[in-house]
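pasting for ref
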Amino acid sequence: MPPKKQRIVVLPGQKTLLSFVGRDKNNNSENVEEMPQTSNTNTDIPDENMAVDEDPKELEHDKRDGPGEGIVNKDPRKYRPVWEKLWPWLLYDGTKMYCKSCQKAGKKNSLALGCTTFKTSTMSRHQETPDHKQAISVPVHQQEFTKSCNKLNSAEDEAVILAMMAVYWLASEDLPLNKYESMINFLKKIGVTKLENLKVNERTNYESYYSATEILDVIDSEIESEIDEKISKSPYVTILADESTDISNRKKITINARIINPETSIPETVFLRDKSYADGTGEGLTSVIIEEMAKHKITNDKLIGFGSDGATVMSGSDKGVKGRLMELNPHMVHIHCMAHRLALCTSQAAEGVPLMKHYQEWLTSVFYYFKASPTREGELHEVQSVLNLPILKCKEIHAVRWLSCFEAVQAVYRSLDALISYFHKRQASKDPKAKGLLKKMATTSFIYITYMLMDVLPIVSKLCLTLQKQDLDVAVAKVRTTK
């Protein structure tokens, strides 16, 4: 079957293929039909080669003067507001169109920077690009993240938060973590039903001792990160160190840091580490301190002070911790703890007075006399009650507790009449220890020393407690000690 003849539409004045070879005299044939020349010719018959997104009403064709010359668009393409309904992310400023999503996401494509190619194909191609898809997905991810944050206080999360609060309370009260499980059970019994969600299934729960240790490690890491942040912001750091023994008689060194808040210029003391050590020499203690400084990123030029108890191993200028730290920073200042120096002054001053030494021995004897027998202590309380005196116990003088002598003297001072009456009663029952204590007590020197100490020790004790404040500077100390 021969091919079907197609109808060719010729624009007014347009040359045909036959005209180039001189055969088209009338510019008309049976297969070629000239369009009538009217004003709306282009709008009635669209061009088959025209792009899909081109509006025939926007095009106006000129005459072809010869081969190789295309169609000139005298009426440029215009932005259509109706496009914003098809592509809500589209924005037009009067000269260029933009993609709002790509601009907000900081992309560098053509529509993000501004485009003047006003075609629907421009938007169609743009919405398929990876840049645009990624920019569109950002708000969706943000909404999902917000929903996740809103679910933070779900039932399981609230149960874990309560468990963390329980572990933190046990640690802050110096209670063992093996009490954690019984504490959780007790809280359930008194109506804290949210803790039921700590049990995931029959084999998995967060109520055991091991869960408590893991929670404590998480709390510890969070506190350490906060301390590290404070230290990094502080322009200067002072290290405070003291050595002692724990309840199991292991040697330990406690390391604290004195820092400054750069925004408020308020000093603050933060705890760094309570660490065991084997080498108690100046070199060994210095290595422990330097290791802790490196862990918290405290540089040598940032270390401007070192505070200690004044022991030789700490304050030695040659082989002590002070001398070795000054090798790292010669501008560092060593500070002997003022509260410790005050306690040393009072204790050493009492050793030079024989009467004071005998008085301390008597206080120690009275303490152990009543501690050895609950019956004696009960009888003393009965005498105090009859004389309308406060029910007090005799206190012990501790060598490691600053000014514990004040508490012991105060107890004797407030129960002086009751003690004399009780020892007289015990003497009548032929108690040799009571007779000896009464003999030392029934002297004018004993009464004088008791009243003299009660005039001096309250003032010294107040000064000592003031110097032990955690956040104290020179100005505050001067004001509090002069009141």
